[in-house]
Specification:
Number of helices: 12
Number of domains: 1
Strand order of the largest sheet: 3-4-2-5-1-6-7
Strand content: 5-15%
Low-confidence stretches: none
Order of helices and strands: EHEHHHEEHHEHEHEHHHH
Structural class: alpha/beta
Number of strands: 7
Largest sheet: 7 strands, mixed
Distance between the termini: 16 Å
Mean pLDDT: 93
CATH superfamily: P-loop containing nucleotide triphosphate hydrolases
Length: 259
């Protein structure tokens, strides 16, 4: 049995991508799933959010996709959170240049994850905020689709359009790649604009927008500075409740029973 693999991708920064990776992963773990979080962003925000100093990482996504170390040796288990992390370091920024001349460069991450997939139920990939070779690697590794976090703001649709074009290009190589769902983030219930954006995105992605909508939340913003997911930092907050609902919705849609 291999893991379900999803990339959380949006080339626009600040849309709640890393926040969603961490908190969706933590809630899936709470529901009994074995979860691996893959940090594929040279900024290494997911690594930092889980309390790991990115400057101390000597085995991570950079070393594994370049074949310098075995993937299993780079995994960092966090028993407290029930999560495992394949961390990133700033060295990952150099991977794009180093991969350019390598054969099969678009499939390096896919090959890496195939070696550890059997150890997990879910693998969530945190992508860089760009449509780069690293992002293409993530898309081709995403056997079960991409999840797109979209901020509830006016310019959201513009960025999503560019992303869809990239996904369509990758589909020429990997026809099975699909959009698993769209997460609406930073929703402000008192703002008509937020509701309008949700309605527009639903037109763009009919039947693909998750019902669980993530609110704008101070607690969600604070949690990373403590190296904790919202499940531990503020488990009763509105953000925690929303991500718990999202995890259940994903499992249900995948036909997976909570353990």
């Amino acid at each position: 049995m291999t893991a379900r693999i999803y990339s959380l991708v949006n080339q626009k920064g600040g849309v709640g991508k890393t926040t969603s990776v961490i908190n969706l992963g933590a809630n899936l773990a709470n529901l009994g799933q074995r979860v691996l979080i893959v940090d594929l962003d040279p900024q290494a925000n997911a690594t930092s959010c889980l309390g790991v100093d990115k400057h101390t990482v000597t085995k991570g996504t950079y070393e594994t996709i370049l074949g310098l170390v075995q993937p299993a040796s780079a995994l960092l288990a966090n028993p407290t959170l029930g999560l495992t992390l394949l961390p990133a370091s700033p060295a990952l920024a150099g991977a794009e240049v180093e991969l350019v001349d390598q054969q099969g460069r678009e499939n390096k991450l896919k090959n890496t994850l195939e070696q550890v997939s059997g150890m997990f139920d879910y693998i969530l990939i945190d992508c860089p905020p760009s449509l780069s070779l690293l992002t293409v690697n993530a898309l081709l590794a995403s056997t079960d689709g991409v999840i797109i976090p979209v901020q509830c703001e006016y310019l959201a649709l513009e960025g999503v359009g560019q992303l869809v074009q990239t996904i369509q290009k990758v589909q020429r190589v990997s026809p099975t790649l699909k959009v698993r769902g769209v997460i609406m983030t930073m929703f402000e219930s008192r703002a008509n604009l937020s509701t309008d954006v949700v309605d527009e995105i639903k037109k763009y992605f009919p039947n693909q927008v998750f019902q669980s909508i993530i609110p704008r939340s101070i607690r969600l913003a604070e949690a990373p500075s403590y190296g904790l997911p919202i499940t531990i930092y503020a488990p009763s907050s509105s953000g925690a409740v929303a991500y718990a609902s999202l995890a259940k919705e994903l499992l249900q849609g995948d036909g997976v029973s909570a353990k």
